[in-house]
Amino acid sequence: MDKKANLIENDIPKNWYNILPDLPFEMEPMINPANMKPLTDEEFAGVFPKEMGKQEHSRKQYIPIPEAVRDIYRIWRPSPLIRATRLEKYLGTNAHIYFKWEGVSPPGSHKPNTAVPQAYYHQKEGKTRMTTETGAGQWGSAVAFATGLLGMDATIYMAKLSFTQKPYRKVLMRTWGAECLPSPSNNTSVGRAILKKDPNNIGSLTTAISEALDDAMHHEETGYGIGSLITSVCLHQTVIGLEAQEQFKQTEDYPDTVIGCIGGGSNFAGVSFPFIGEKLRGERPDMKIITCEPMSCPTLTKGIFAYDYGDSEGLTPLIKMTTLGHDFMPPAIHAGGLRLHCKAPIVSKLALNGTIEPRAYHQNEVFEAATTFARTEGFVVAPETAHAVKGVIDEALKFKNTKEKKVILFNASGHGHFDLAAYESYFDGTLVDYEYPFELVQECLCRLPKVE
Amino acid sequence: MDKKANLIENDIPKNWYNILPDLPFEMEPMINPANMKPLTDEEFAGVFPKEMGKQEHSRKQYIPIPEAVRDIYRIWRPSPLIRATRLEKYLGTNAHIYFKWEGVSPPGSHKPNTAVPQAYYHQKEGKTRMTTETGAGQWGSAVAFATGLLGMDATIYMAKLSFTQKPYRKVLMRTWGAECLPSPSNNTSVGRAILKKDPNNIGSLTTAISEALDDAMHHEETGYGIGSLITSVCLHQTVIGLEAQEQFKQTEDYPDTVIGCIGGGSNFAGVSFPFIGEKLRGERPDMKIITCEPMSCPTLTKGIFAYDYGDSEGLTPLIKMTTLGHDFMPPAIHAGGLRLHCKAPIVSKLALNGTIEPRAYHQNEVFEAATTFARTEGFVVAPETAHAVKGVIDEALKFKNTKEKKVILFNASGHGHFDLAAYESYFDGTLVDYEYPFELVQECLCRLPKVE
Question: Do B255 and B182 share a structural domain?
Fold first, then answer.
């Protein structure tokens, strides 16, 4: 094996890997803002499937993937593990670089790994429709795909900026039978309130989350889909890392560095948690784990660890996590999927305790890395994924003149076929590198909800 | 194996399959229009690589794939063979439906299967730049990808209609380092002449071919890339069918029907030639082979077999093939890659002698089929590929109430990520089903070049 490792479909994992039992710390409960008490399973299951409520705090190391979910996974899984030999050569590095290529899924990213089980659980529990939000469009496309294949309806609220920047995302969702609306919209009371305050609001993941939640709360037949952040979503994504571990058996390598980009944390969790498990259990204590985020939304590198809402309007439970403040509105960068003020609680705590190393990058250096990747490895990745590529290149360049054996794995979370306007801006030299908006963030952090 | 068959990379074919020795007829030579004599190898090699000149009339059954080409193939090959179980269930058919999914290549179609060897041969023979034409953008993207990875320059002439309909195709080509111009352009004498005659000319594959040839003929360091039609290009595409034959060994099935859409004929040739070989050699005499073309450009169903040019301006050699006349301008349908007046000579003759069955479809029924495919199998295919899907569904519906074993294989030649404007028109009900423009075609056929 010198380039690509394949698994046959029977090797799609039968279980997801649950990191909770391996963590060296306890997770703080979600808090119900209505009574400031820990959220009960019943309260959680208002818009989420009950099954995911159980997964949020399960102590089982492995959680079975329903056969109906594996059956849809089979359309594109196992995703290829590819050795980036051309990139290695171009960089002149002695490091071996591998990537899991999640762009092969029909919606084009890792997102269906959790969209499919979420739609499946909702349907099993009697729902016929789903709502969700989407930033860059990857998550909304995944829910449209999953509900389309399962014969459910779906309404996707898409951050207005991305909706305008990527006009074909909504057509893609429509192809699978879903409706896609720009958020803030007039479809929900929350959306109307935002528009009343600021008719020119360009939206963000968080405004869209508020609308999708509001819609689901007001329609009994409707369940809500969440694209990232919570523990059960990170769990579903672990198929990526688990497959990689199997695929590495076909090689003579094993990763000592694992890298992923981070918006809410799910693709990063997906590729890294099975390897972090090995690190935490002491099997591979020297494993290096790196997350890459945008300078313009630098949650892990500049945020604080506190209870906060996951959406801008305070509709979610309070979650203890690293945050820039739920009303922080990140600049209009092209990596829409990374414009989230907060990070998954588990990832937040692993960053706090030093298990993982967060890094932040500017847009232009990120697109430069993505262009290098396209011209060496062929694939044109999403702007989000490009952050991971930048991290990989930085890391690999440290091993230009050493004989030390180094194996880097990263998650190529999605393709950039709907993001070419962003590449065009980069080539035209019109991409802005936003400075870290420190005062804005400080203001937002001052408005964090008080939790005793 | 019930869903997806994988080969590991070492199973990428080492040879292409050459159908010439298996054909029950002789192929007519290309004619040099300057002297009306058969084209010599030297004349052919003016803009094409010498190596491809040899491949045009080789009698060897198998032709080795250069290791450098296989090395790039490994990025996405072997492409998956997927059983369309959900589509089967939706149709209620007893037929087993399989597809080769060529959309996994970085440019998103089967086209790099030949773009890579063409760029490789050109570079080996001293060229540092390539030109080519592109209709829908799939072929241009493939040449941009191949030249980008090999460090060559490239200029791609894109039919103006598609250039406008698909603004992101040019950015994709630019990402790999290539320049993409709308054709007719002011960059070549041929383009300027077309624009002088008709400043609003929307272009077609054939105007773009003329410009790309003109450019290559006037620049010594430049080789020309051809996306379809000629024998060596069909040869390169046979990796598709050869892989499928290997992959079927992992199943309990073997195709008795092979289906592909047809523009120039290369993706159809790629999937079908290895199976047609079995049919011609008498190993599987009942094998049914079907090509699907648009009603608006119905070459195989309505054209005539005669010597004609491959481009609109008469720059190519004269080729004996089925044609609608080289100056036939097909209506502006969305399947830009199928808007070609002529078909590959081998495919033309196999249709003439009844080995393959041509069918023609209207746009709306084709997009209906593609939408069904997206909502069952997940993948959103190109409008070209959608023609094959329509053919598959028609065929599969014949086996709703039989117990007869039927196995259909088709080539899913590319994804539709850059064709969503076409899907939108379909959903909005604004797609026009063009009637077969018989008088226009008759006029064009009257202007066929005279060859003794």
Answer: no
Contact B322, B343 (CB under 8 A): yes
- Structural domain range at position A334: 4-10+64-108+231-445
Please check whether residue A47 touches B, CB under 8 A: no
C-alpha dist (Å) from residue B138 to B103, B295, B415: 10, 21, 9
Q: What is the pLDDT of residues A349-374, one digit of tens each?
A: 999 999 999 999 999 999 999 999 99
Give the model's confidence band at A5: pLDDT under 50 very low, under 70 low, under 90 confident, else very high.
low
What is the pLDDT, as a whole number, of residue A2?
47
Q: SS3 for A210?
A: helix
d(CA A158, CA A134): 5
Q: For residue A332, is pLDDT > 90?
A: no
Nearest to A175 among B76, B374, B377 (CB): B374
* pLDDT of residue B212 exceeding 70: yes
Q: State the virtual CA torsion across A259, A280, A61, A266 in degrees, nearest 10.
A: -30
Q: Residue B242 maps to which CATH number?
A: 3.40.50.1100
Question: Is residue A75 assigned to a domain?
Answer: yes
Q: Are residues B221 and B255 in the same domain?
A: no
C-alpha distances (whole Å) from A242 to each of A314, B132, B211, B346 are: 35, 43, 51, 47
Is B45 part of any domain?
Answer: no
| Inter-chain CB proximity B427 and A174 less than 8 Å | yes
Does position A98 have pLDDT exceeding 70, yes or no?
Answer: yes
Q: Find the residue in B nearest to A166 (Cα).
A: B168
- pLDDT of amino acid A378: 98
Q: Which two tokens stand for residue B188?
A: 């070549």
Residues B332 and B359 in one domain: yes
Q: What pLDDT digit, counting tens, does each position of A130-167 carry?
A: 999 987 789 999 999 999 999 999 999 998 988 887 88
In chain A, the number of structural domains is 2
Q: List, in sequence order, the alpha helices (H) in A397-450.
A: 420-428, 438-446
Per-residue pLDDT band for B7 (boundaries 50, 70, 90) equals low
Residues 174-213 of A with CB under 8 A from B: 174-177
Q: Which whole number is the average pLDDT over A46-74? A: 95
CA distances from B378 to A68, A90, B76 (A): 15, 36, 19
Residue B26: count other Cβ atoms within 10 Å of its Cβ: 8
Q: How confident is the model at residue B1 (pLDDT cuts 50, 70, 90)?
A: very low
**Shared domain check, A95 and A187:** no
Its ipTM equals 0.94
3-state secondary structure of A83: strand
Tell whether B235 and B377 lie within a shared domain.
yes
**Residue A348 shares a structural domain with residue A393:** yes
Residues B401 and B280 reside in one and the same domain: yes
Same domain, A213 and A255: no
Does A89 reach chain B within 8 Å, measured CB to CB? no
Q: In B, residues 3-32, which contact A (CB 8 Å cutoff)? A: 3-9
